[in-house]
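Sat 14:20. Reprocessing the chain from the morning session after the first attempt stalled halfway. Input below, unchanged.
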Amino acid sequence: MRGMREVEVTPTAAGRFEAVIGGDRFTQFSLLADATHNRFLGRSIWNINAVSLGGVAEMLRGLVATGMGLGIDTRWLMIDGDAGFFAITKRIHNCVRGWPGDGGLLGDAERRHYESVVGANRERLHELVSPGDIVILHDPPTAGMVDMAKETGAPVVWRCHIGRDVANESTQLAWDFLSPYVAQVDAVVFSRAEHVPASLAGTRTLILPPAIDPFAVKNVHLDRQTVVSILGAMGLLAAPPPTGPVTFPREGSTGTITRPAKIVREGGPLDPATPLVVQISRWDRLKDMLGVMTAFAEKVTTDPASGEAHLALVGPDVEGGRDDPEGLEVLQECVAAWHALPAEQRRRISVVSVPMDDADENAAIVNAIQQHASIVTQKSLVEGFGLTVSEAMWKARPVVASAVGGILDQISDGQHGVLVGPEDLDAFAAALTRLLTDAAESRRLGQAARERVLNHYLADRQLTQWAQLFAAIATA
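Finished this time. Tokens:
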């Protein structure tokens, strides 16, 4: 274990939001930002989590960069852990979402190990944090740091990005483990009111849906040639040989696609004209990649109306990953299921592991896949929010998703996308086939989806809510 370290983030100019959100909205945002800047002169806002990649890390990077650009000393620390720690926190993570995961215990031995890892950060935390600062702890890996953070004299917030709408035995097990740590915070933040456990009912609570950064590498607009070039370089599409390095825009410079994806498929890269259905998720059973594969293989490929449409199940390259020990196992299950399919069905499905060595390269590849997709799916069985839904909606893609968790907040069925029951494979497949054959409806849904994100799920709204909470707890 390396202990706690600071993640370096380059400040970004908040003024660029004006061109996206409009003058009136930007003026209101700027006034609040100025007040927050003045209130926190000489003070810092510390975000602490346990991973540098993935949806939460992406949101943190954007929020920290924009906060710094507003002149607010916004920082990001990351704790480390051993394999045992991440096995325990993954178990807690699954249980918060109502699923027993590996079925392991969350008893005294697990608590001792968890506390030994988070406790190793006390000295470093006390060196960095001053009274009057604000500490934001993110998700189960950091819940055990509440007391040591409060010892610094700073207000402490715990932000939980996951949850389940209806409690069960697994959620109770998780909250029995977490609540003793979290009960003493100055505020808790959840994505949905339904995710707040009864044990925290008396705690100051902010309901704060996540948001995307429209200027992040994953969300910036890419022209068609760049999209095809990126997907050719990583191996998904058959693209003309590049005349030079395949590049993508990133903050203040360009990046280069140098690493191919690991792709399990029949045959070679796809023709760029082939309609493509994609789901981009962690290799996580609750994202139900196997359900997507089954529905597409058994019901879409056998329907002549679907033509030659192809499915790509896309997730991270999880070899060597310690913070998500189940990822490799789930990926292997998907690959085994793919091998078991009839040859004609295998021919129309790819299992794609995107390289993770460079965060911006990974984000550019995901961005290109989403922009190229004919349809984006998110067939989760349980979902805290589902940031990949907002990402696809921002790119004006039609989305077919499960009617669960935060997806219900993002999409009104038939208005901004299509919602289906999380285990209804027939309805899921029918929605895919309908949108594959109805270009006008796909276009209408995609345009409405982008407008929905513009109005509700961009970073200025999230930063505004954070600023309002900081003002309340800093003066409490």
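Residues 224-456 form a domain with the Rossmann fold fold (CATH 3.40.50.2000).
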